[in-house]
């Protein structure tokens, strides 16, 4: 086991004890794994990869029931199921997890990370390990982080500058940080589950939203918001998550297998996501989506910087923010 996996299991042991007995009954344990997107998307394919890795090491021990297309609810509802134990596994953005661990908002601060390499370095540091411990205390085991891509602005008309956003109704995730970001830029944020956004955009209830390019294509949002301003204001991190109720019933050996499978699955997911983003842009461009470079990037960054000050106390202080910025 490599250092990061030992570090994760060691930190998790502070809050969740594994049974000493390794043996289990002959019947396979069912794992309900929820995915927001379809069978061919990375959010679902990762669970096939993890299931295969677990089966290789623990043959016949576990049966994965992978439920795609948000059939078990939106992102918030799925994590509520994780905490209750009715769903055993899923992915979640760190944005979504801020409902239970506000410190995850550190990784959602706008224009903090230069690129994915910068983000990954921050997640591998003590700040990432601390999040894993805090999430476990809330019933959410997070053995591996994933990268969804950068969030960009999607809209019914071109919105290339911060000034053009003013007065627009923008769909946001249920996050005070995201609400504050768009309020500071002069927009009117409206929190909606991802499963309701297509209808909200098509009826004019909202004018815009932000999302990664892969999810933009996955939810076919280009049909209702064909304009994409490439702001890359947030590099969206997430995690493989398991229910602590499920995890605590695993032996130490099984926990090591699942941790290893999750880490390998995260690497696989990131590779798929990179390829999926390229193919998604190509596909939606053929169907009418138009991509624009964000104009006056300095103004975008200046308009969003107040969020750092407002949320510093919740995410470990300004010194923590600046330490990650300078990694």
Automatic annotation (TrEMBL):
Annotated signal sequence is 1-27
InterPro entries reported for this sequence: DctP_fam, TAT_signal, TRAP_DctP_sf
The keyword Signal is assigned to this record: yes
PROSITE patterns given in the database record: TAT (PS51318)
Keyword annotations from UniProtKB, A to Z = Signal
| Protein name (database record) | TRAP transporter substrate-binding protein
Annotated organism of origin? Aquamicrobium zhengzhouense
